[in-house]
């Protein structure tokens, strides 16, 4: 097989010059944000705030950590990336376009009738989407089974699961957290996007999930917490988790809704953010200015 | 009380009750042994349970293939989600728990993680319908009603050990998800006396008859056969159509059996809502067949705790109750299935 593989295979972590590596990821994060804004404009609304917040995490994962073949999304040895939070689909499509799994020009169909890119991510629709998320608390149980199965088969592929802090309300997440620890699934990496916001308001007011790190540690996980919009911190943390053995790992990422676009960063925090028609171009300009800084 | 003969006291007999009649031929743990045989041929077969391996006959597989059994703890959402994940990487899981937990508690996981992606996951539910005297917490009287609406899902309600032994490889061969209503422990062995083979999606006429046709599923086929034999002695000629696959339903066989002037009776170990009776009734109505259907099923209520034989009698599932119902229908003449039978609407 000589199919092209992702950077994690062709350029294993640590071999590239660190500064160059971080610059490359930041540029990818910029393009993911840019893709997300373009898709948001198609619908005039959407989970754009979350997409901008999680873009750095996805950039590190898809351009630096994950092993996959963009041309062969069913490659059996690929690392699996599960989007438990199906409503973050806009962010995942933006990342999959950056990864080369879906064509950039297809992004403009986002959320349209008969598009392969529905508003909530579903495996049956989109290449590179591993599960149908949306009903929260499903990703980690499925990741548990994939990881048990891959280990049983002697396959060294890893399983990543992106969940949100709001999703920690779901009991099934903790059922699976116990199972991963009990079975010593060190091929599982959970990533928790702590944006401190859920549908009915701030997480602290809806159902308090803190102290998040302590909870995961108490459940037997190797837990790290970083600024999820700091690419260098994300790279260092994920490199450490990659080397960890004996228990599952979780990276808790504090992210900022609307990150990279001051217009949206400063807007009143909303789970489902509306952006006026004239604001999209402003947002793109602000994003570009941020990259230049 | 002057008698000194102690009366035999019927008890709840908790979870390990068998519905086998005294002296009936049985087979021990047919599901577990069938899974073992299948596993020897197919390395991708794996087993999971949610702290109920011992009570779903999965322990037989666990003990024979410890490296292929995965204990998920008392966590049914995680059980079904993990089974989906295993199927996603190419394994063929059988995941066992009690029916009440697989359906009521973990339905979202069965529906979205297993059925929507159409994965080959085989969910095995113990204590279906009224097979425990433990009360509503463990009596899955509405599992078929919950699951029949789930797209892609194949649903099998076996009669006996023969059905189970033949269904297990068929369920693994079926590419999509399945739900098996498990009979466990000492399971009656009945169908080997008939010219019968389990075929997924197919009903089977076990005996012909001119007066009555009993359309039955699950363990009620055993009762239907017993009732038919006893009614024969009273010169009532009774046919039995066994419908082990509830979904997809063999509508052709049902229409063939019910386009008739015979008395049509359905029998199921399930509430009268949303199970076999309504499946048969809707099949007939959708085909424009006006035959009346007499349901023998559990009532639309939460059932009592107690000893199984008592409860089967009380709720109409015992062979005696089936015979009484059929005789009443044949002899009554003035049946009133609905309290109100309004005049037809006019233009």
UniProtKB/TrEMBL annotation, chain A:
**What family does the Swiss-Prot or TrEMBL record give for this protein?**
Belongs to the transketolase family.
Q: Which GO terms describe its molecular function?
A: magnesium ion binding
Query: Which Pfam families has this protein been placed in?
Result: Transketolase_N
Annotated Transketolase N-terminal domain residues? 28-287
The UniProt entry, under InterPro entries, shows: THDP-binding, Transketolase_N
Q: Which SUPFAM superfamilies match?
A: Thiamin diphosphate-binding fold (THDP-binding)
Descriptive protein name: Transketolase subunit A
Write down the species: Geodermatophilus obscurus
**Co-factor requirement:** thiamine diphosphate
Keywords noted in UniProt: Thiamine pyrophosphate
Lineage, please? Bacteria, Bacillati, Actinomycetota, Actinomycetes, Geodermatophilales
UniProtKB/TrEMBL annotation, chain B:
InterPro entries associated with the record: PDH/Transketolase, THDP-binding, Transketo_C/PFOR_II, Transketolase-like_Pyr-bd, Transketolase_C
What GO terms are given for molecular function?
magnesium ion binding
Q: Which UniProt keywords apply?
A: Thiamine pyrophosphate
Q: Which residues form the Transketolase-like pyrimidine-binding domain?
A: 25-189
Give one Pfam hit by family name: Transket_pyr
Question: Required cofactors, per record?
Answer: thiamine diphosphate
In which domain of life is the source organism classified?
Bacteria
Identify the CDD domains for this entry.
TPP_PYR_DXS_TK_like (cd07033)
| Family per similarity comment | Belongs to the transketolase family.
Its protein name is: Transketolase subunit B
Source organism per entry reads Geodermatophilus obscurus
Q: Species lineage, top-down?
A: Bacteria, Bacillati, Actinomycetota, Actinomycetes, Geodermatophilales
